[in-house]
Design a protein that fits this description.
By secondary structure, the protein is mainly alpha-helical. It contains 9 helices and no strands. The longest helix is centred in the N-terminal third of the chain and has 29 residues.
Length: 191
């Protein structure tokens, strides 16, 4: 097959997949996970049910794919912040603040939906990737004497991620920023 034809097919598949993911996420946000059927997703996406089943076997698998895409986007955004110019401490602060804001935004993923979204291997891999990434930023900060070095970077990464997970229950961005400030205060070099 000519290359142009393959690209067109792949483009079409990507566009169908994107439409299904977006439509399903919107329907689940409106009606809850149990209120959404494959028929409704197909109808709202503008594709046939048979086509939908070629892509996904059920609503849960669509939501898992949507969640994996969301996580990948968040990790890319955090990596971009970590790669920006600035001191290690400035970059660490930017990453931790954005991470906390992401935690606050995902607060609506409760109950059954949360159980579906957070049980995949992609979540375990993403959490490990995030911990390694934050650990690296902390090690850079310790070398630059902007982060304490009396506690291992691995322990500090756990401290940061656990503390900032609490942002999910905070009512405002101002409250999130205060939590980030308290977390950063715990990272400052002693003495």
């Amino acid at each position: 097959m000519p290359k142009l034809w393959n690209e067109t097919i792949e483009e079409h598949r990507r566009s169908v997949r994107d439409a299904v993911l977006q439509t399903t996420a919107a329907l689940v946000a409106e009606q809850g996970l149990r209120g959404v059927t494959m028929s409704r997703i197909a109808e709202e996406s503008g594709i046939g049910r048979a086509t939908l089943y070629k892509y996904f076997p059920d609503v849960e698998s669509i939501m898992a794919a949507w969640h994996e895409r969301q996580i990948t986007g968040h990790l890319a955004e955090l990596a971009e912040l970590g790669d920006r110019p600035g001191t290690p401490g400035e970059r660490l602060e930017a990453v931790l603040e954005r991470y906390a804001l992401i935690q606050q935004q995902r607060h609506g993923h409760g109950g059954e939906l949360s159980a579906v979204l957070h049980r995949g291997d992609h979540v375990v891999r993403a959490e490990q990737h995030l911990r390694d990434f934050v650990r690296g930023l902390l090690a850079e900060g310790a070398q630059a004497r902007e982060v304490r070095d009396d506690v291992s970077s691995d322990e500090l990464a756990g401290y940061c991620l656990h503390a900032l997970a609490g942002a999910g229950a905070l009512p405002s961005k101002a409250a999130v920023r205060r939590l980030v400030a308290v977390t950063l205060a715990g990272l400052r070099p002693q003495g």
